[in-house]
Amino acid sequence: MLGVLASAASAAAGTVLVYGDSLSAAYGIGQKEGWVSLLGGRLRERKADYIVANASISGETTAGGAARIDDALKRFQPAVLVLALGGNDGLRGLPVAEMKANLGRIARAAQARGARVLVVGMRIPPNYGPKYTQAFYDAFAEVARETKSAYVPFLLEGIADGREYFLPDQIHPTAAAQPLLLDTVWKGLEPLLRK
Description:
Elements lengths: L2 E2 L9 E7 L14 H11 L4 E5 L7 H15 L3 E5 L2 H5 L4 H17 L3 E5 L9 H18 L2 E3 L25 H16 L2
Parallel strand pairs: 2-3, 2-4, 4-5, 5-6
Antiparallel strand pairs: 1-3
Helix pairs in contact: 1-6, 2-4, 4-5
């Protein structure tokens, strides 16, 4: 999905750009049920002076995200970037150093245009062994620290072990899980909206 989820952009103080993969693109559920759409609703309820744009693409890797970040920043001119990529890198066993470099490039590109950045971390199953699994998880915190970005350790916090929260593929969260994802992201995002 690529588009603005709320109108009246000219009336808003800024745009929150969600830059992720299928977990942010409402894969397998209705677009209005996804956590990004729910974020737009929460901002409206709280009369926050922001709109939400979702530039998340199912299957996206950090390399793909890094390749298109300049165009996305030019198009949406976000005040805040929610960076939620990396899961597909981990599922494919791609080198952690490359993922980390790509995430850093995305964060720094957004910051160079004046955006505040929230890095949203991910965990992967232990298929590739404990060393890779830990390095993968640690990379998100390292990028957040090195770029002085806000940080949420794990998008699927509180639901990862609950099979009932996932579609039959056991990868993508159900509609019922989306408010929980929003609550997790909100912990890191809400302070950025006050700046």
